[in-house]
Specification:
The chain has about 425 residues and is an alpha+beta fold. It has helices spanning about 5-35, 40-60, 70-90, 95-100, 100-110, 115-130, 140-240, 245-270, 285-300, 315-335, 380-390, and strands spanning about 305-310, 340-350, 350-360, 395-400, 405-410. About 70% of the residues lie in helices and about 10% in strands. Strands 1-2-3-5-4 form a 5-stranded mixed β-sheet, covered by helices on one side.
């Protein structure tokens, strides 16, 4: 219950508790002032006794503390109060003010709609009698006036009661709607919480799946390259140990040497594909700046690195992927482009990161790229696969004699 509802409830309690006393007091004062309406001492004694009885009845009923529930005790109180009001109004019509208290609480005291309307009708009879000049009626005009007032009062009461019922119905409907909205909001919040938990779980599972996939890839590479190469070397050395002459031994030693060089190259390539050491102590912009500078010093080709936008700390996997793409692109440029200048630009554009590597070398036809050889690097397909693995894309623009531009566009995922 809100503070406003509490204030309204408090005022209603005060009205139902003290309103009866107030109307009884006002009726008594008006009756005393119009003393000519009560001519005999017996009427004064009877009126005083009935007023005392009304006060005692109200004290027995007690103060109102919240809306009452209709009950047998409430019905008894309503009937006794009506009887006292009827008797007082018979003595003096000004006690009709006290009789009107029956309008206020019949729905809280009397169970059943029909009984409530009967109680209201009884109250209307007393009030209409007081309004028509008091009881008993002494002329046909007074009876006619009573009938008119009875119909008018009861009709007005019916209209007001109908309007009140409609308002209560709307209030109940609003309360039900509010309750349903609260339930819907609670269900929506639970769904959002569950969705957030599911999203976090999916991220964890995706990360674990990526780690597992990388482990399987490395295991397969080690098995298919290094392990097989070492097995071949052992086999060749065993043949050398049992060779019948020097020529056969030299032949197998050369084969073992070739296998060792090949395995060393595969080992270097596998290590090259692991997490970059350059990112261990620096962010991606600093790592790229150092990588580009070292490449320029090593190759003698002027190389420039530029950052645009507001640099942010990227997720480690995202940073490692972009660094590997730059390393492979620079390696391709050194081996094939014969470039006179190379430029690398890292752009932070709100919700995405763009990496551009450009050179002014000899260029090539992207549609005529030869298949990867055993001595080749990671290759354009590998760079594209790296970008797509983190929901990005990689495009290559090049023409013979016009240089090459490699652009990787990936979503910006901040560091956890």
């Amino acid at each position: 219950m809100t503070a406003a509802d509490e204030r309204i409830e408090h005022r209603q309690n005060q009205f139902h508790t003290w309103g009866v006393y107030g109307l009884l007091a006002a009726s008594t004062l008006l009756s005393v002032a119009a003393h000519e309406l009560m001519t005999s001492p017996a009427e004064w004694y009877a009126g005083g006794a009935l007023v005392v009885a009304a006060v005692l009845l109200q004290l027995w009923h007690g103060p109102r503390r919240g809306r009452r529930t209709p009950s047998r005790r409430g019905t008894v109180y309503y009937v006794l109060r009506w009887a006292i009001a009827f008797a007082l109004t018979w003595l003096n019509p000004f006690f009709g003010f006290y009789a009107s208290t029956g309008y206020f609480d019949s729905d809280e005291l009397i169970p059943g709609k029909r009984r409530q309307w009967l109680g209201l009708l009884a109250t209307v009879v007393v009030v209409a009698g007081s309004q028509s000049g008091g009881m008993p009626f002494r002329s046909p005009i007074q009876w006619l006036l009573f009938a008119v007032l009875l119909v008018a009062n009861y009709g007005l009461l019916t209209v007001v009661g109908h309007i009140t019922q409609q308002e209560e119905q709307r209030s109940r409907e609003r309360a039900v709607t509010i309750t349903e909205l609260e339930s819907a909001n609670a269900a929506l919040q639970r769904a959002l919480d569950e969705n957030a938990a599911l999203h976090a779980q999916l991220l964890v599972q995706a990360r674990e799946a990526g780690v597992a996939d990388e482990r399987r890839r490395l295991a397969a590479e080690i098995h298919d390259t290094i392990a097989q190469g070492l097995t071949g070397i052992i086999a060749q050395l065993q043949v050398v140990a049992n060779a019948p002459d020097l020529a056969v031994a030299r032949t197998h030693l050369e084969r073992a040497s070739d296998l060792a060089r090949h395995s060393l190259g595969e080992a270097r390539r596998s290590v090259h594909n692991l997490a970059p050491v350059a990112l261990a102590d620096a962010g991606l912009p600093e790592a790229l700046k150092r990588t580009v500078a070292e490449w320029g010093e090593r190759t003698g080709v002027p190389a420039e690195f530029t950052v645009t936008g507001t640099a942010e700390q990227l997720h480690e996997e995202l940073a490692a992927t972009l660094l590997r793409i730059v390393q492979e692109a620079l390696s391709n440029s050194a081996r094939h482009a014969a470039a006179g200048r190379v430029g690398v630009t890292l752009s932070f554009l709100g919700d995405e990161v763009i990496l551009d590597i450009r050179d002014d070398g000899r260029g090539f036809d992207p549609l005529a790229v030869p298949a990867r050889t055993s001595t080749g690097g990671f290759g354009l397909d590998g760079m594209r696969a790296r970008a797509e693995r983190i929901a990005g894309s990689l495009t290559v623009e090049s023409e013979p004699g016009q240089g090459t531009a490699v652009s990787a566009r990936v979503p910006l995922v901040r560091h956890d």
